[in-house]
Write a structure and sequence with these properties.
Chain lengths: 115, 353
């Protein structure tokens, strides 16, 4: 609260044009099957971690593609890297590798800075 | 689409605006914040266009701000408005000219209510008769005063001494037009061009030589919103709305903003000061702010009126950069002086000085 007795409300609108998509681009360069994902959610449906927590690989994929890296970084460590999702993916995405690269990248940047 | 169908569809977006004999009702806010606007409107209609316009000194507030903040009940505001109509009847007029967009919205809402619920009209007649002994008629023609200036925009253009053109470059001035939500978003048929294609201000700008900017948040609310600013702690909502608009229009480098609503004008003017104080942000060129003018003030400038007689010095954002672009001459020493040479109070912390 400043001298006027009120403050500017920060808009909750997500401006995708201003988001940083460099993490998604890096994943796609290192693991090209990332581009094949159609966000069907089969990975999330079979996920053991997702059975007990609100972890969803589908959601992580969506967040990374939209450049909402901070939100992805917060959730990504819940994966146990068991690889069941690879077995069920109808598009043949190497989901474990996608997640592994994303986790490695986001741990360096903490989701905040550009690569 | 064939021609007759086109005509039929567009006819729904046209508005009939009376040609003469107006009963003028003033705005509460405008008389306080932009006193020159209403004065100039009367001068324009009476002396420049030679029309008949009358204002009754017994006219009061429409209580719209109280109504929109849930303080004044609907029955009360209907009776207050009925009293205005009674004053109009007693004065012998049938065409009402409303200066305020809030009042205009109130009048349209009430007239539509009476159309759909005739029993409310009968009740209001009874309330008014019991309270004041007066009787009233619903106006034959209802126009916002910006409608009237729009109607006579070409006559004004033909008498223009200045055009909305940058004198140095010869380029048309880039103008943001902002129309009050209550003008046509509630009842589109009462606005020129309806809610989808409001033409009332852009028509004036085009007629007077300017270029209208079409920016992404053009139809966004200014943030006035009554409840959003009445409670001090909520004013951040109001400010955030204005900031959203300013951020959106900034890349188009507007030379000025024209509004037809007192609330929009007040907030788009004064919030520029607030956001500058809070965050150090400005939205005009070279670190300046964008002047916000009423349509009467713009008409006055176009017709060569002295900017200080129009009351431009009482806006928070000062108009000098715009006046320089248009080539309007003004005296710095006469800025805060009355016609008979007495000093006027000079506001503090003005912007663009």
């Amino acid at each position: 609260m400043n001298k006027f007795g009120f403050t500017l409300s920060v808009p909750r609108v997500i401006d995708y044009d201003k988001n940083d998509r460099s993490v998604a681009d890096l994943i796609a360069a290192k693991e090209p099957t990332f581009r094949l994902c159609i966000e069907c959610g089969t990975c999330a449906a079979t996920c053991t971690a997702g059975n007990f927590t609100d972890f969803s690989l589908r959601e992580i994929n969506v967040l990374l593609r939209r450049g909402e890296n901070e939100a992805a970084a917060e959730k990504i460590n819940r994966c146990m890297l068991c690889g069941k999702c690879i077995l069920v993916c109808p598009r043949g995405v190497n989901t474990r590798n996608v997640l592994f690269i994303a986790r490695e990248t986001l741990s360096k940047t903490n989701g905040h800075e550009r690569l | 689409m064939n021609e007759p169908d086109k005509k039929r569809i567009w006819s729904e977006y046209q508005k009939e605006i009376a040609d003469d004999h107006y009963f003028y009702v003033r705005s509460c806010i405008r008389q306080s914040f932009f006193p020159g606007s209403e004065q100039f409107f009367l001068h324009l209609i009476r002396d420049i266009l030679g029309k008949d316009i009358y204002e009754n000194p017994s006219h009061t507030t429409c209580t719209g701000i109280g109504y929109h903040t849930d303080i004044v009940p609907f029955q009360t505001i209907m009776t207050v408005v009925a009293r205005h109509f009674a004053l109009m009847k007693e004065s012998g007029y049938k065409n009402i000219a409303i200066s305020c967009v809030t009042s205009f919205g109130i009048y349209t809402e009430i007239i539509e209510t009476w159309k759909h619920f005739p029993e409310e009209l009968e009740k209001t007649r009874e309330y008014l008769l019991k309270a004041t002994g007066r009787e009233f008629d619903i106006p034959e023609n209802m126009a916002h005063t910006s409608d009237i200036v729009y109607k006579f925009r070409n006559e004004i253009a033909s008498k223009a001494k200045f055009r909305l053109v940058n004198k140095k470059t010869g380029e048309p001035l880039k103008v943001v037009e902002h129309i009050g939500c209550h003008y046509s978003k509630m009842f589109p048929k009462y606005g020129v061009g309806g809610a989808e294609f409001p033409k009332v201000l852009s028509g004036m700008i085009e007629a007077w030589g300017g270029e209208v900017i079409d920016y992404p948040e053009r139809r966004h609310c200014c943030g006035f919103g009554f409840r959003q600013y009445i409670v001090q702690a909520n004013r951040g909502y109001s400010l955030s709305n204005s900031v959203k608009k300013f951020e959106s229009m900034k890349p188009f480098k507007p030379d000025f903003i024209i509004t037809n609503c007192p609330g929009c004008n007040m907030f788009m003017d004064k919030w520029q000061y607030t956001i500058r104080e809070m965050e150090g942000r400005t939205y005009g060129e070279n670190g300046l702010s964008i002047p916000v003018l009423t349509y009467e003030e713009v008409a006055g400038l176009v017709l060569g009126m002295n900017p200080w007689e129009l009351g431009l010095q009482y806006h928070m954002v000062q108009p000098e950069p715009l006046l320089d672009k248009m080539g309007v001459e003004y005296s710095k020493s006469d800025k805060f002086i009355t016609k008979d040479g007495k000093p006027l109070p000079a506001p503090e912390k003005l912007i663009n000085v």
